[in-house]
Amino acid sequence: MFYTYILKSLKDRKRYIGFTSDIAKRLNYHNAGLNPSTKNRRPFDLFCFKKFKNKLEAERHERYLKRLKGGKQLEKEIEEMLKSSR
């Protein structure tokens, strides 16, 4: 199982979008400061995620979400992810 996830920084309230096969491990990785693009925005909470059967689907969804760069369509996608991650 693979996941597309959105983290929310408790420092600046901004979001980070990624994909992984182990959400807990990846969250710990970000919070430990091991990811250069997020280390100055720690700590993070897991905001939402979406499950996928394979890596390719999760990776494609991550790229799609990042291309949206905010706006109504991203908010719609986040609402759907929140529903599925409950």
From TrEMBL:
Coiled coil: none annotated. Residues 1-78 form the GIY-YIG domain. This is GIY-YIG domain-containing protein.
